[in-house]
Design brief:
The chain is an all-alpha fold. It has one domain. The chain is built from 15 helices and 2 strands. It has a two-stranded antiparallel ribbon.
Length: 370
């Protein structure tokens, strides 16, 4: 395990096992860890949407952020930074969440669903890879959201402070915070276990930089499978953990899977939208959460976009349910593709124009010097 490959497999393995353990102690089946679902639940708990079955201040999210923050401080990696196309990041985060909620899960949950026998996640996986492939084409054309610059320290502390506030509100349970009495939001492992699991995962991911989008992107773009070994570790050890801890819930098939639907086209398209946006953003929802803990305010803006997407999806009937995908959700995915692809081409055009302008100035300067 001293090798790079071994470390990635071990990191993924710990995440997979923790996910299975969280399910054993109360988290929803196939949802030991789901970043999109957890941010959606937090948005509901804060009253940003009123879907009564998905409202809970998930302490795992606080753990991810504080674990990353603590490890970054310990290793000297913490740096407040930002300013890289914040509005575009917010929009991309918004539509990433829309795609995830049409599929019913983030890319990490997609892997965990596969590890518990949910074959509906296969079409989601294919869609995710196709979306990542499309995103790569934009990268090849020169897509970039620009460089971040140093930001005030106070800005970098935004998410760690919010993470602490979530824990305080969870424990204090004031009347203005919403808690589900049924459905996925009512299913939760003990808060201390969930927080501890999040802290461990946050610290590990801050060091390894593991990212679901990065794993597939690098494998396709540069034939580098470093992060893929981590994803394989998540799947393998989540499968093992489910067989050990949750065997009664293990079921291979398409029908009757928990918090899932078998509208295969929309599983594909939802995750394809998530794949494109994750590549353009430079990371999946889990990676964005870890970056936010390190002081990256661009990731903070992305997370705000995710939460806004979750609130909008449940307030306006965009999110799927185990019964399938409604008309509003289908329209939202199609709109998402149009908006995201338009952003991609627009940014590429702007980058090319800027480079051409810079080249002309350089050439003009050379002529003047001559």
């Amino acid at each position: 395990m001293n090798s790079s490959k071994g470390k990635m497999i071990a990191t993924g393995g710990i995440i997979g096992l923790i996910s299975a353990i969280l399910v054993r102690f109360g988290n929803p089946v196939n949802m030991g860890v789901c970043v999109a679902c957890f941010f959606r639940d937090i948005a509901g708990g804060l009253g940003l949407h009123r879907a009564a079955v998905v409202q809970y201040l998930r302490p795992e999210i606080s753990g991810f952020i504080l674990g990353s923050f603590g490890m970054a401080k310990l290793k000297g990696d913490y740096k407040a930074r930002g300013g890289s196309s914040p509005v575009i990041r917010f929009i991309l985060g918004f539509f990433l969440m829309v795609g995830a909620l049409v599929f019913l899960g983030c890319p990490l949950r997609m892997i965990l669903r596969l590890a518990n026998g949910d074959l509906n996640a296969v079409t989601g996986l294919v869609g995710y890879v196709v979306g990542i492939y499309i995103g790569i084409q934009f990268l090849k054309m020169g897509f970039t959201l620009g460089k971040s610059t140093s930001a005030p320290q106070a800005a970098g502390y935004t998410m760690p402070i919010l993470a602490v506030a979530i824990i305080v509100l969870l424990l204090a349970a004031p009347t203005f915070i919403f808690f589900s009495e049924s459905g996925p939001g009512s299913m939760a492992a003990p808060w201390l276990l969930s927080l501890g699991a999040g802290l461990l995962i946050g610290g590990l991911l801050q060091r390894t930089r593991l990212c679901t989008a990065g794993g597939f992107r690098d494998a396709i773009l540069i034939k580098d499978f470093h992060y893929m070994f981590g994803l394989i570790g998540i799947f393998a050890f989540a499968l093992l953990g489910n067989l050990i801890f949750n065997f009664e819930a293990f079921k291979i098939g398409f029908v009757g899977q928990p918090i899932a639907h078998n509208a295969h086209l929309w599983n594909f398209l939802g995750m394809a939208l998530a794949g494109i946006t994750a590549v353009l953003l430079g990371g999946c929802p889990l990676r964005q959460t870890i970056l936010a803990g390190e002081g990256d305010t661009d990731a903070v803006i992305t997370i705000f976009g995710l939460m806004a997407g979750a609130a909008f999806a449940h307030n306006f009937g965009l999110a799927a349910s185990p019964q399938g995908v409604g008309l509003n959700g289908k329209i939202a995915v199609m709109v998402g593709f149009v908006v995201v692809i338009a952003i991609g081409f627009s940014v590429v055009a702007s980058v090319k124009k800027e480079r051409a302008s810079r080249l002309m100035k350089d050439q003009g300067g050379a002529v003047n010097v001559g």
